[in-house]
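Can anyone check this?
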Amino acid sequence: MANLKGNRVSQIVIHIFFALFSLLYVLPLLLVISISFSCEKSVTSTTIVNAGYHLIPTEFSLEAYDMALRSPEQMLQAYFITAAQAVIGTLGSCLVLGMVAYPLSRSAFSFRKPVTFIVFFTMLFGGGLIPTYIVYTNIFGLGNNFLVYILPGLAGGAWYTLVIRTFFKNLPESLFESAKIDGAREITIFLRIAMPLSTPAFATVGFLMLVTKWNDWNTSLIYIRDARLYTLQYLLQRILNEAKFLMDLAASGKASQITAVQTMRLPMETLRYAMCVLAAGPMLIIFPLFQKYFASVLTVGAIKG
């Protein structure tokens, strides 16, 4: 009886601890959302008593979103481009990752060790920005092209390849031997046995790549000139930089009177948080769909089949 009570007390303490620990992550998110729906003066004013950051907006306003969504057609186009390149790139990368990692996990592949070293070696050195730009634009013609979002990252990355390879190696060898006895070829074993059994690994790696591709803005900055091909992150950055430029111009006294009046109304502080909500919102929505797969990948190597 005493042990039962002790277990209950310890579980309650653990639950309270993790609940408080979770608040450390939830509260900043709620604060960002609250500020994005707040009036600029209620956040930045030095004359208002209750001005500042609050979990509940003291003065509700949509002025930050009005500024961010001043061109809804362009915003929707940026969402479409971002979602398309993220989904297509992630699916293609997962397929290529599997095709590279599978032979590296098979003992029958004679060159698995040198090839694995070559894959690992790519984690240590990069090609450099200027040589990469020349290769992408002059040789492959990917400048100002939608394919620049997909083709360069199709290999997925060395770290992801090693993760998938490790997951393949932990699959029961008896499954592959049984399939070979039944006459299955390697491509059949890969597609019908290895890939389906590695769903947790591919889901986890795929989600991480999806987040990386969703948050990418450097590609648009370096390679894209057509506004119709801008990603969401780059478009939001341009809007924020334009607003900041107008504020700096007005502060320098070089702007016209009309421009100065307009810039005084720009919700610079709340605009930053509205950008965060617009950029991170879709990822926060789909994250629970992938959450269950993370535990499976974390236990890779803990249990041998």
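Reply from J.R.: I decoded it. The CA atoms of residues 40 and 267 lie 5 Å apart.
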